[in-house]
Amino acid sequence: MLKARKCVREMSEYHSPLCDPAMELRLDLNESTTGCSPRVLARIRSLDAKLLALYPSRESGEKLVADFLGIKPEEVLLTNGADEGIDLLCRAYLDCDDELIIITPAFAMYEIFARAAGAKTVRVPTNADLSFPIEQVLRAITPRTRLIVITNPNNPTGLDVSREDILRVIKAAPDSAVLLDEAYFDFYGKTMMEQIGRIPNLFVARTFSKAYGLAGMRLGILAGAAEQISLLRRMISPFNINAFAVECLKEALDDRQFVAGYVKQVCGTREWLREKLTAMGFQCWPSYTNFLLVNFGDLRASVLEGMTNRKIALRNRPDCAGCLRISIGTQQEMERVLAALEEIVAEKSVSQQAVR
User: What is the CA radius of gyration of the chain?
Assistant: First the structure.
C-alpha cells in the first residue's frame, strides 16, 4: 500500500482563511484594499500573446531587485510569494528531528513547512505584553537548532524587534539559519538587508503582497549570502515566477511615489482607528504594520459575527485571547468598520439589559 512519509501523514490539512466571496470588505488577510500601482496595471494590459507563450526569466528580475536593495544579484532569489522562500529554507536546512524556533503567536506556515521536513517546532511564547522574549529565545537554542524565524514587525501582534535582540540571536546560533521575515518592512522602515553578505547565516524575506498591492501575483524575495542562495537555487523550480510578475516588477519598483503614498495613508488611518478603538475601551497594541491587533475580550465572538453579517471580514486570532486582527484599508473603509462596531456594541448592550 502506498504511503506518504510519516511526518506528512500526521500533519493536519491547512485550510486557507480566505473568506466568503460575498464579503464586501476583506480585512482579514492584510491585503491592500487600494490595489496595485496604475503603472503595473498598464504593463499587464500591454502584454501580448507571444510573451505569455514563453517561459519567464527570473534572473532578469533578480538583477532589478538586487539593484533596488543595494545587494548583489547572486544574493537574491525571487520566490513564488514569501511562502516559497520559507519552504526552501525548511527543506534545505531542516532534517528529521532538527529544530525550528518560532516566536508565538506566529504565521502558521513556518510550522507547516517545518513539519513537512520532519523537523520539530520549538515554540517560544512572547512576553505577557506580546514583546519579543529575547532571553527565552536564547535559552531555547540547542545543538539541534537549525532554523530560527524572527518576524519583524511581528504578525499578528504588529510589534517590532530591536536590532540588538536580532543580533544577539544570530550570534548565539552561528550554525543555524536565521530568517528575518520583513513582510511588513514598508510600514516599518527598519531593516537588516545591509547585513546580507556580511552575516553568513542571515536570510531576509520580503513580499510584494502588502504595500505593493500584488498579493494575487505571488511574488517574494529571499536574500542571503551568495553561497547559501546558490544552494537554494539547486532546489527551486527554474520557472517558479510567472511572466506577469517578471514583466511588472520594474514598474512596481520604480513607482515609489505610489508605494509611499499608500504607506502614508495606511499608517495615518491605522493610528486614527487605534485612537477610536482605545476610546471605546478596547486594548490596541502599537503597530508597525498595515493591521491592528485588538482585544475585544468577551465581545470577540459577537464582533466577529456582527461584522460578518455586515459583509466585513476580520481575522479571528484564537492564539491571542479575546483578539481579532483588523487589516487597515482606506479612511472611508475604516469609518465603516467603526460605525459597524458601534452598532454591534450597542446591540449587545441592549441584549444584555433585556436578559437582566
Answer: 21
- Nearest alpha carbon to residue 25 among 238, 343, 328, 295: 328
The cell numbers describing 272, all together, are: 486614527
Answer yes or no: is pLDDT of 344 > 90.
Answer: yes
Full residue range of the structural domain in which residue 266 is found: 18-32+257-349
| pTM score | 0.94
**Average pLDDT for 173-197:** 97
**Is there a single domain that holds both residue 130 and residue 272?**
no
Rounded (10°) angle between helices 331-355 and 256-279: 20
For 241, phi and psi rounded to 5 degrees? -100, 130
Q: Which amino acid is at 115?
A: R
Residue 331 backbone dihedrals phi, psi, to 5 degrees: -60, -45
Report which of 352, 344, 350, 334 is spatially closest to residue 300, judged by C-alpha positions: 344
Beta bridge partners of 316: 324
Same domain, 284 and 234: no
Residue 2 maps to a domain: no
Residue where the block lists cell 520566490: 79
| pLDDT, tens only, 43-86 | 999 999 999 999 998 899 999 999 999 999 999 999 999 999 99
